[in-house]
Amino acid sequence: MGQILSNPVIDKEHHSGEDRLTAFGLCAMQGWRMSMEDAHVVQPNVLNASDKDHIALYSIFDGHGGASVAQYCGEKIPSILQRQKSFKSGNLSQALIDTYLQTDEDLLKDPVLRNDYSGCTATSILVSKLQKKLVCGNSGDSRTVISVKGRAKALSYDHKPTLASERSRIIAAKGFVEMGRVNGNLALSRAIGDFEFKSNSELAPHEQIVTAVPDIIEHELNYDDDEFVVLACDGIWDCLSSQDCVDLVHYGISKGDMTLNDISSRIIDVCCSPTTEGTGIGCDNMSISVVALLKDGETVGQWFERIRAKNYNIEVSFEKRRRQVFTYYHFPKDDASIFEVTTKHPQDRFSQENSAQNLRSAGGSGNNNDHDNMEIDDTDTDSDAVTSNINRRGPQQAGSSANGPVDLFSLEALLGAGGIQISQGPNNVSYIHGSALTDMLASLSNAAAGEMVPEEDEDKDPQDSAKNDKKIEEI
User: By CB count within 10 A, which of 203, 371, 415, 451 is most buried?
Assistant: First the structure.
């Protein structure tokens, strides 16, 4: 699963827009991972206004081993596409193949990136108004699907090392598949970058252990049946099937008050794990684009009305699907707080006052049984992952009050619970003060000296207390 954080980073990147061919809503979130390694392209038209055709380009790049290659693709892929002769001639399928291979070549010319060990999966679509065609190119385990009359149709297939065709290429290139991974390392078999798996000079690019060559699927557009396209990284597809995702988009459309951006954002909320317990799904970076296919002269508002009028009667909701994805977790019965992990930061969810109250409830009540409601999980979920998290069995357990669980990750709340405050002084300098500060310093001093702090004894010599007070003053 890789290294994960104690709390997810829930700041979301949003993009939306519309043109006369497509409209889109994109959302991306770092989540539980240590860093954000996804990138994307949202270009409603990659041609000039004077050109005869109108071509939209949408891509999702899911990085691994670092963000460098994915970020490069997000910045450079449109210009690399425009350079290809195949693109200029209107051969969109070949253009995507040439673009992916050219990106690898350009990366190898970069003095820094050629030695970078990161890579990224890539799934892209080109939508042509003149050709009335949609072309998808995919390398890796990101995925693209199209909704046709409410049903999910695959526009790409996940490239996993365990597939017979992928395994054959890997072995022929003197690689191996172990535990479902390329050379026991990479969980996917096609990607841009990953040059340590492309170092055999005797083999062509499509023959390497890992290749950037995409599979291509073309789809002739029928705007009466074809509704929208979803492109997403495997962080989404680990949690949802293609049909699940299409159903959720239709459900969002049926609500009547959600934009494409709102829908993509809510799908990420559905998929983000509420905790680091469980199987590890929902703990990845997440990126998703929902692309509406517009008829001639149709606005995005009219598109919503047209799709809504089909009245598919989707029986699932965002809340229901989230509960189904994370069946092991005890969500509150109230749906209003089911998305709290991705909609409220810890400092917003738990006030200092509530944290102090909960800390007293969990550890200061004098009842040792209260500790049984909380468990510290510091087991390694991966060989390179060491996490220490507070995992709760239910919303009203772990010493929590009706106002919410304890925020053990807020230093200010912890200090406040012990009678110590952090205040802002002149020139933005913070200082610590409070009635318990002296006791804390004395305890630290004794611990550093290897001493045990004795309990107060009524028969203790007053002179000893005076000596201790003198030590504290010296500190």
Answer: 415
The pTM of the full predicted model, rounded to 2 decimals, is 0.74
Comparing CA positions, the residue from 186, 13, 40 lying closest to residue 123 is 40
pLDDT-above-90 percentage for the chain? 65
Report whether 97 contacts 137 (CB < 8 A). yes
From residue 14, how far is each of 32, 46, 114, 259 by CA, in Å?
18, 20, 31, 12
Is pLDDT at 451 greater than 60 in this prediction?
A: no
440: domain range? 436-475
Residue with tokens 């690019």: 205
Mean pLDDT (the chain, rounded): 81
317, 368: one domain: no
Same domain flag for 39 and 101? yes
Q: Is 65 within a domain?
A: yes
Task: Find tokens 């977790």 and name the residue.
Answer: 329
Contact indicator for 325, 240 with CB cutoff of 8 Å:
yes
Task: Grade residue 371 by pLDDT with cuts at 50, 70 and 90.
Answer: very low
433: nearest Cα among 415, 416, 421 = 421
